[in-house]
Amino acid sequence: MSHPTAVQLLEAVGLFLREAEAALPGRLGFHAKVARNVVAIVCRELAQDPDSAEARALAAFGGPAAVSAGLRSGELAPDDPALLAALAEAVIARLAVDNPRYPTLARLRAPEDSS
Amino acid sequence: MATRPASREGSEPLSILDPAGPEGRAALARLLAPALGGAVTVREVVALSGGANSATWRVEAEVTRGGAAPEVRCVIFQRSAGRGAQGLPRRVQAEVMQRAGRAGVPVPPVLAIPDDASGLGDSVVTGFVAGEALAPRWLRDERFAEARGALAAQCGAALAKLHAVPLSAWADLPLGGGSGAELLEGMFATYRRIGVDVPAFDLAFAWLRPRMPETPPTCLVHGDFRAGNFLVDEGGLAAVLDWELPHLSVPEEDLGWLCVQAWRFGHWQKPVGGFATRDALLAAYRAAGGTVEADRLWTWEVFGNLKWGMSCLQLADDHVSGRVPSVERAAIGRRVSEVAADLVHAIAKGDL
Q1: pTM
Q2: Which of B337, B347, B351 to mutate to test the interface with A (most CBs of A within 10 A)?
Q3: Residues paired with residue B110 on neighbouring β-strands, in sequence order
Q4: Structural domains of chain B ordered from first start
């Protein structure tokens, strides 16, 4: 195994970017913050493998590219409940990596939306 | 859209003055003298936030009239970002803004529009309007509680007044636009040009296609009417900013855009900009004389979310294609996941 692991290396970069963010003025500081967020996304992506999760969620419809193609050609209907349930599972897997604090993630996971 | 950048580049002088430099200050002073009614010395030029399409400076001018003591005036100088900037030329934007102001929309006063000989580029000078521009701040701070309560009525009234202006009043300006169906197809063409597959975007295109109106535009829309483009003071809406994207469409486009999840800044329980319910906005719009159906608003809200998602995709493509390498643009590409989740939620549950 590699020591440190890829995730541990990225976590170290994240720590450095946090320091840089505090020391850099204006736009550079803002970009350090954005970069730290990007590093966090990559860490989660390495741990969670959202590509596979999305492919599994949409497997019954032939996978992500086939779903896009089917919706474009009209073979798949945008009101098909089974398709909507599969798409919900697929977007949850991606959003859990890209922004786990986004409110819609919890709302999609809730069995019955309270709104 | 395709013809605008070319015509703009053609009309731009080769070198444009830095407004903070000595020549730029002198040019600003010459421009401001008639507008401010006296001899003008430009004291300070401070760069404010710059968007993708424009750059903004605060200019402090000293005005001397006759023998009176000099008066200090603050004005705002705004200029297109130049090559690759989207939106209308500043001069047209300023004209739309002034006419909207005369119709009753709160806008900053236009003080001067530089001509080509000024060396100041495609720009406009407006009066300084006090207020908070950072939406997360006025959505949260206690001192804006009253303002938040007033905003739904003020936004509804501002949009109703803008949309009530007859189409003929804009006929002399080079404005784009089209039916809802045409706007959707334009967006789909961009989506296919970028060439990636986002299943949730295809879901939204398929859901919207039979729902978007094919009827021609009925009014001018602001085109970017959202929480981030408001100046808010303790009384509420002080000014509507950023008139870069006005076009001819239907009222529901502005109303639906105001409800897009991305401008709620986490306050998702209040769909209208994070500060009000849809019913409150619709009631205010109708009370000010506007006509709108709730189900058509919902269709345009879904359209608005998809449009924001397409912006994320395009900004990310700027980086991926190598046109504008930028960590910021690369990161925005992953906000596509947020919009994908919003679109699936909206279409599966009929609410967002």
Answers
A1: 0.91
A2: B337
A3: B126
A4: 4-127 (no CATH), 135-349 (3.90.1200.10)
